[in-house]
What we know:
Elements: E1 3-5, H1 16-25, H2 35-43, E2 48-52, H3 56-64, E3 69-71, H4 76-79, H5 91-94, E4 102-104, H6 114-126, E5 132-134, H7 140-151, E6 155-161, H8 167-170, H9 180-196, E7 200-204, H10 208-217, E8 222-225, E9 233-237, H11 238-241, H12 263-280, H13 295-307, H14 311-330
Parallel strand pairs: 1-3, 2-3, 2-9, 4-5, 5-6, 6-7, 7-8, 8-9
Helix pairs in contact: 6-7, 7-9, 9-10, 13-14
Amino acid sequence: MQFLVALSRASSTVTNHCLRHLRSTCNVAAEKVTLTRLKQKHRKQEPITVVSTHDYPSAVHVDVAGIDVCHVGDSVSMVIHGHDTTIPITLEQMLAKRPLLVGDLPFGTYESSSNQAVDTAVRMLKEGNMDAIKLEGGSTSRVVAAKAIVEAGIAVMGHVGLTPQAISVLGGFRPQGRTVASAIKVVEMALAFQEAGCFSVVIECVPAPVAAAVTAALQIPTIGIGAGPFCSGQVLVFHDLLGMLQHPHAKVSPKFCKQYACVGKVIKQALLEYKEDVINGSFPGSLHIPYKICEAEANGFINELQRLGLDKAASAAVEAVQNMDTSKSNGKGNSTKD
Protein backbone atom coordinates (compact mmCIF):
# COMPACT_ATOMS: atom_id res chain seq x y z
CA MET A 1 0.00 0.00 0.00
CA GLN A 2 1.61 3.25 -1.09
CA PHE A 3 1.80 6.43 0.98
CA LEU A 4 -1.43 8.21 0.07
CA VAL A 5 -0.84 11.94 0.43
CA ALA A 6 -3.93 14.13 0.48
CA LEU A 7 -6.25 11.56 -1.03
CA SER A 8 -9.40 13.61 -0.53
CA ARG A 9 -12.86 13.09 -1.99
CA ALA A 10 -14.92 16.18 -2.82
CA SER A 11 -18.12 14.45 -3.91
CA SER A 12 -18.44 11.44 -1.59
CA THR A 13 -16.81 9.68 1.34
CA VAL A 14 -14.43 6.77 0.92
CA THR A 15 -14.97 4.23 3.66
CA ASN A 16 -12.46 2.14 5.53
CA HIS A 17 -14.06 -0.88 3.84
CA CYS A 18 -12.74 0.48 0.54
CA LEU A 19 -9.30 0.86 2.05
CA ARG A 20 -9.31 -2.74 3.27
CA HIS A 21 -10.38 -3.83 -0.21
CA LEU A 22 -7.57 -1.80 -1.75
CA ARG A 23 -5.03 -3.35 0.60
CA SER A 24 -6.28 -6.86 -0.17
CA THR A 25 -6.27 -6.43 -3.94
CA CYS A 26 -3.08 -4.40 -4.46
CA ASN A 27 0.14 -6.35 -4.12
CA VAL A 28 2.71 -4.09 -5.80
CA ALA A 29 4.41 -2.97 -2.64
CA ALA A 30 5.32 -5.31 0.16
CA GLU A 31 6.43 -2.34 2.26
CA LYS A 32 4.12 0.58 2.91
CA VAL A 33 5.64 3.92 2.01
CA THR A 34 5.73 6.06 5.15
CA LEU A 35 7.37 9.36 6.02
CA THR A 36 10.33 7.38 7.27
CA ARG A 37 10.54 5.54 3.96
CA LEU A 38 10.45 8.83 2.05
CA LYS A 39 13.30 10.15 4.20
CA GLN A 40 15.30 7.01 3.43
CA LYS A 41 14.74 7.44 -0.30
CA HIS A 42 15.79 11.06 -0.04
CA ARG A 43 18.94 10.13 1.86
CA LYS A 44 19.81 7.56 -0.80
CA GLN A 45 19.01 10.12 -3.52
CA GLU A 46 16.34 7.85 -4.97
CA PRO A 47 13.78 9.87 -7.00
CA ILE A 48 10.35 10.15 -5.41
CA THR A 49 7.37 9.71 -7.74
CA VAL A 50 4.19 11.64 -6.99
CA VAL A 51 0.81 11.86 -8.73
CA SER A 52 -2.02 14.20 -7.76
CA THR A 53 -5.39 12.50 -7.91
CA HIS A 54 -8.79 13.17 -6.46
CA ASP A 55 -10.86 10.04 -5.90
CA TYR A 56 -10.70 6.40 -4.86
CA PRO A 57 -10.73 4.77 -8.34
CA SER A 58 -7.91 7.02 -9.53
CA ALA A 59 -5.96 6.32 -6.35
CA VAL A 60 -6.23 2.60 -6.99
CA HIS A 61 -4.61 3.08 -10.40
CA VAL A 62 -1.84 5.16 -8.86
CA ASP A 63 -1.30 2.62 -6.10
CA VAL A 64 -1.20 -0.38 -8.45
CA ALA A 65 1.37 1.45 -10.59
CA GLY A 66 3.65 1.64 -7.56
CA ILE A 67 3.80 5.44 -7.37
CA ASP A 68 5.44 6.55 -4.12
CA VAL A 69 3.09 9.38 -3.21
CA CYS A 70 -0.51 10.01 -4.15
CA HIS A 71 -1.14 13.70 -3.58
CA VAL A 72 -4.49 15.38 -3.82
CA GLY A 73 -4.93 18.91 -2.71
CA ASP A 74 -7.14 21.84 -3.47
CA SER A 75 -6.58 21.33 -7.21
CA VAL A 76 -9.73 19.22 -6.86
CA SER A 77 -11.49 22.60 -7.12
CA MET A 78 -10.43 22.86 -10.77
CA VAL A 79 -10.20 19.32 -12.14
CA ILE A 80 -13.28 17.93 -10.38
CA HIS A 81 -15.55 20.92 -9.66
CA GLY A 82 -14.71 22.94 -12.75
CA HIS A 83 -13.66 26.16 -11.03
CA ASP A 84 -11.05 28.40 -12.65
CA THR A 85 -8.93 28.52 -9.49
CA THR A 86 -8.32 26.52 -6.30
CA ILE A 87 -9.81 29.21 -4.09
CA PRO A 88 -13.52 28.14 -4.04
CA ILE A 89 -12.91 24.69 -2.51
CA THR A 90 -14.16 24.35 1.08
CA LEU A 91 -12.81 22.47 4.06
CA GLU A 92 -15.87 20.20 4.05
CA GLN A 93 -15.13 19.21 0.45
CA MET A 94 -11.53 18.45 1.33
CA LEU A 95 -12.39 16.08 4.17
CA ALA A 96 -12.40 12.33 3.48
CA LYS A 97 -12.65 9.06 5.44
CA ARG A 98 -9.46 7.30 4.34
CA PRO A 99 -6.39 6.74 6.51
CA LEU A 100 -2.81 7.54 5.47
CA LEU A 101 -3.65 10.94 4.07
CA VAL A 102 -2.12 14.41 3.94
CA GLY A 103 -4.61 17.07 2.92
CA ASP A 104 -4.18 20.63 1.68
CA LEU A 105 -5.55 23.31 3.95
CA PRO A 106 -8.04 25.13 1.71
CA PHE A 107 -7.98 28.88 1.20
CA GLY A 108 -9.66 30.71 4.06
CA THR A 109 -9.12 28.00 6.67
CA TYR A 110 -5.70 28.89 8.12
CA GLU A 111 -4.75 32.47 7.24
CA SER A 112 -6.36 34.32 10.15
CA SER A 113 -4.22 32.97 12.98
CA SER A 114 -2.08 30.09 14.12
CA ASN A 115 -4.97 28.92 16.28
CA GLN A 116 -7.24 28.75 13.22
CA ALA A 117 -4.54 26.84 11.32
CA VAL A 118 -4.09 24.32 14.13
CA ASP A 119 -7.85 23.89 14.55
CA THR A 120 -8.24 23.24 10.81
CA ALA A 121 -5.31 20.83 10.76
CA VAL A 122 -6.73 18.93 13.73
CA ARG A 123 -10.08 18.70 11.98
CA MET A 124 -8.39 17.40 8.83
CA LEU A 125 -6.81 14.62 10.88
CA LYS A 126 -9.77 13.78 13.12
CA GLU A 127 -12.61 14.08 10.61
CA GLY A 128 -10.68 13.34 7.44
CA ASN A 129 -8.63 10.57 9.06
CA MET A 130 -5.47 12.05 7.50
CA ASP A 131 -1.93 11.74 8.75
CA ALA A 132 -0.57 15.16 7.80
CA ILE A 133 -1.43 18.40 6.02
CA LYS A 134 0.06 20.69 3.38
CA LEU A 135 -0.09 24.47 3.29
CA GLU A 136 1.18 27.11 0.89
CA GLY A 137 3.91 29.59 1.69
CA GLY A 138 4.39 33.18 0.58
CA SER A 139 4.50 35.03 3.88
CA THR A 140 5.94 34.79 7.38
CA SER A 141 2.49 34.13 8.80
CA ARG A 142 2.27 30.90 6.78
CA VAL A 143 5.55 29.70 8.27
CA VAL A 144 4.33 30.61 11.74
CA ALA A 145 1.18 28.61 11.08
CA ALA A 146 3.23 25.65 9.86
CA LYS A 147 5.37 25.76 12.98
CA ALA A 148 2.31 25.90 15.23
CA ILE A 149 0.80 22.89 13.48
CA VAL A 150 4.04 20.92 13.78
CA GLU A 151 4.26 21.83 17.48
CA ALA A 152 0.70 20.52 17.83
CA GLY A 153 2.05 17.13 16.75
CA ILE A 154 0.90 17.18 13.13
CA ALA A 155 3.23 16.57 10.16
CA VAL A 156 3.33 19.40 7.61
CA MET A 157 4.39 19.68 3.95
CA GLY A 158 5.26 23.16 2.72
CA HIS A 159 4.69 24.68 -0.73
CA VAL A 160 6.79 27.43 -2.35
CA GLY A 161 7.11 29.12 -5.73
CA LEU A 162 3.77 29.52 -7.45
CA THR A 163 1.15 29.26 -4.73
CA PRO A 164 -2.24 28.93 -6.48
CA GLN A 165 -4.21 30.20 -3.50
CA ALA A 166 -2.42 33.55 -3.85
CA ILE A 167 -3.05 34.16 -7.55
CA SER A 168 -4.97 37.36 -6.80
CA VAL A 169 -1.72 38.78 -5.42
CA LEU A 170 0.54 37.12 -7.99
CA GLY A 171 -1.60 38.32 -10.89
CA GLY A 172 -2.61 34.87 -12.08
CA PHE A 173 -0.86 31.55 -12.57
CA ARG A 174 2.56 33.10 -13.12
CA PRO A 175 5.94 31.37 -12.64
CA GLN A 176 8.03 32.64 -9.74
CA GLY A 177 11.76 32.98 -9.09
CA ARG A 178 12.62 34.67 -12.38
CA THR A 179 14.33 37.65 -10.77
CA VAL A 180 17.07 37.72 -8.13
CA ALA A 181 14.69 38.94 -5.44
CA SER A 182 11.96 36.45 -6.35
CA ALA A 183 14.40 33.53 -6.56
CA ILE A 184 15.96 34.33 -3.19
CA LYS A 185 12.47 34.58 -1.69
CA VAL A 186 11.69 31.04 -2.90
CA VAL A 187 14.89 29.72 -1.29
CA GLU A 188 14.30 31.60 1.95
CA MET A 189 10.68 30.48 2.18
CA ALA A 190 11.71 26.85 1.67
CA LEU A 191 14.39 27.16 4.37
CA ALA A 192 11.84 28.73 6.69
CA PHE A 193 9.46 25.82 6.17
CA GLN A 194 12.28 23.40 6.95
CA GLU A 195 13.12 25.37 10.09
CA ALA A 196 9.44 25.22 11.06
CA GLY A 197 9.66 21.42 11.02
CA CYS A 198 8.12 20.51 7.65
CA PHE A 199 8.97 17.03 6.36
CA SER A 200 8.95 18.07 2.68
CA VAL A 201 8.44 21.07 0.40
CA VAL A 202 6.66 21.29 -2.94
CA ILE A 203 8.32 23.66 -5.45
CA GLU A 204 5.95 24.85 -8.17
CA CYS A 205 6.63 26.74 -11.40
CA VAL A 206 10.13 28.11 -10.87
CA PRO A 207 13.23 27.98 -13.13
CA ALA A 208 15.25 24.79 -12.80
CA PRO A 209 18.35 26.49 -11.31
CA VAL A 210 16.21 27.95 -8.53
CA ALA A 211 14.70 24.55 -7.73
CA ALA A 212 18.19 23.02 -7.79
CA ALA A 213 19.39 25.63 -5.30
CA VAL A 214 16.43 24.97 -3.01
CA THR A 215 16.99 21.22 -3.15
CA ALA A 216 20.70 21.62 -2.34
CA ALA A 217 19.97 24.03 0.51
CA LEU A 218 17.42 21.78 2.22
CA GLN A 219 17.87 18.58 4.17
CA ILE A 220 14.31 17.48 3.46
CA PRO A 221 12.86 16.22 0.14
CA THR A 222 11.66 18.66 -2.50
CA ILE A 223 8.86 17.71 -4.88
CA GLY A 224 8.91 19.63 -8.14
CA ILE A 225 6.00 20.55 -10.38
CA GLY A 226 7.07 22.70 -13.29
CA ALA A 227 10.42 23.18 -11.53
CA GLY A 228 12.83 21.14 -13.64
CA PRO A 229 14.66 17.84 -13.02
CA PHE A 230 16.77 18.73 -10.00
CA CYS A 231 14.21 18.14 -7.22
CA SER A 232 14.04 15.07 -4.98
CA GLY A 233 10.90 13.97 -6.76
CA GLN A 234 8.26 15.03 -9.27
CA VAL A 235 4.48 15.42 -9.21
CA LEU A 236 1.90 15.71 -11.99
CA VAL A 237 -1.86 15.83 -11.80
CA PHE A 238 -3.57 12.54 -12.71
CA HIS A 239 -5.96 14.18 -15.17
CA ASP A 240 -3.19 16.12 -16.90
CA LEU A 241 -0.70 13.31 -17.43
CA LEU A 242 -3.44 10.98 -18.71
CA GLY A 243 -4.87 13.62 -21.04
CA MET A 244 -8.32 13.26 -19.49
CA LEU A 245 -9.42 16.87 -19.66
CA GLN A 246 -11.48 18.08 -22.59
CA HIS A 247 -12.85 21.56 -23.30
CA PRO A 248 -13.16 23.81 -21.33
CA HIS A 249 -10.58 22.47 -18.87
CA ALA A 250 -7.93 21.72 -21.50
CA LYS A 251 -7.24 25.44 -21.68
CA VAL A 252 -5.56 25.30 -18.26
CA SER A 253 -3.40 22.26 -18.96
CA PRO A 254 0.04 23.39 -17.80
CA LYS A 255 2.93 23.78 -20.24
CA PHE A 256 5.24 21.72 -18.04
CA CYS A 257 3.02 18.63 -18.13
CA LYS A 258 3.99 15.65 -20.24
CA GLN A 259 0.87 13.89 -21.53
CA TYR A 260 1.40 10.13 -21.36
CA ALA A 261 -1.98 9.21 -22.81
CA CYS A 262 -5.06 10.73 -24.43
CA VAL A 263 -7.64 9.16 -22.19
CA GLY A 264 -10.00 12.08 -22.67
CA LYS A 265 -10.42 11.24 -26.36
CA VAL A 266 -11.09 7.60 -25.51
CA ILE A 267 -13.68 8.60 -22.92
CA LYS A 268 -15.35 11.02 -25.33
CA GLN A 269 -15.53 8.38 -28.08
CA ALA A 270 -16.93 5.79 -25.69
CA LEU A 271 -19.64 8.19 -24.50
CA LEU A 272 -20.56 9.10 -28.10
CA GLU A 273 -20.86 5.42 -29.02
CA TYR A 274 -22.97 4.76 -25.94
CA LYS A 275 -25.26 7.66 -26.81
CA GLU A 276 -25.59 6.38 -30.39
CA ASP A 277 -26.37 2.83 -29.27
CA VAL A 278 -29.08 4.04 -26.91
CA ILE A 279 -30.64 6.25 -29.57
CA ASN A 280 -30.64 3.57 -32.30
CA GLY A 281 -31.81 0.86 -29.89
CA SER A 282 -28.81 -1.44 -30.17
CA PHE A 283 -28.12 -1.13 -26.44
CA PRO A 284 -29.04 -3.00 -24.43
CA GLY A 285 -28.80 -6.02 -26.74
CA SER A 286 -29.38 -9.62 -25.75
CA LEU A 287 -25.92 -9.96 -24.23
CA HIS A 288 -26.78 -7.20 -21.78
CA ILE A 289 -30.25 -8.40 -20.78
CA PRO A 290 -29.18 -11.10 -18.32
CA TYR A 291 -32.30 -11.42 -16.17
CA LYS A 292 -34.92 -13.79 -17.59
CA ILE A 293 -38.41 -14.87 -16.67
CA CYS A 294 -39.65 -18.27 -17.78
CA GLU A 295 -42.63 -18.57 -20.14
CA ALA A 296 -45.01 -19.87 -17.47
CA GLU A 297 -44.19 -17.06 -15.06
CA ALA A 298 -44.40 -14.49 -17.84
CA ASN A 299 -47.86 -15.70 -18.83
CA GLY A 300 -48.96 -15.70 -15.21
CA PHE A 301 -47.63 -12.17 -14.79
CA ILE A 302 -49.49 -10.96 -17.89
CA ASN A 303 -52.73 -12.61 -16.76
CA GLU A 304 -52.43 -11.02 -13.33
CA LEU A 305 -51.91 -7.60 -14.91
CA GLN A 306 -55.07 -8.10 -16.96
CA ARG A 307 -57.00 -9.19 -13.88
CA LEU A 308 -55.92 -5.98 -12.16
CA GLY A 309 -57.19 -3.94 -15.08
CA LEU A 310 -53.73 -2.92 -16.19
CA ASP A 311 -54.32 -3.78 -19.84
CA LYS A 312 -51.76 -1.31 -21.16
CA ALA A 313 -49.09 -2.75 -18.89
CA ALA A 314 -50.07 -6.28 -19.93
CA SER A 315 -49.82 -5.37 -23.61
CA ALA A 316 -46.37 -3.87 -23.03
CA ALA A 317 -45.22 -7.07 -21.32
CA VAL A 318 -46.57 -9.20 -24.20
CA GLU A 319 -44.81 -7.03 -26.75
CA ALA A 320 -41.56 -7.23 -24.78
CA VAL A 321 -41.76 -11.03 -24.67
CA GLN A 322 -42.36 -11.16 -28.40
CA ASN A 323 -39.51 -8.76 -29.14
CA MET A 324 -37.15 -10.74 -26.95
CA ASP A 325 -38.10 -13.96 -28.73
CA THR A 326 -37.57 -12.30 -32.12
CA SER A 327 -34.21 -10.88 -31.09
CA LYS A 328 -33.12 -14.28 -29.80
CA SER A 329 -34.09 -16.10 -32.98
CA ASN A 330 -32.43 -13.46 -35.18
CA GLY A 331 -29.30 -13.26 -33.04
CA LYS A 332 -29.82 -9.52 -32.63
CA GLY A 333 -27.63 -7.92 -30.01
CA ASN A 334 -25.01 -10.65 -30.09
CA SER A 335 -22.38 -8.55 -31.90
CA THR A 336 -19.21 -7.52 -30.17
CA LYS A 337 -20.42 -3.90 -30.16
CA ASP A 338 -23.22 -4.92 -27.81
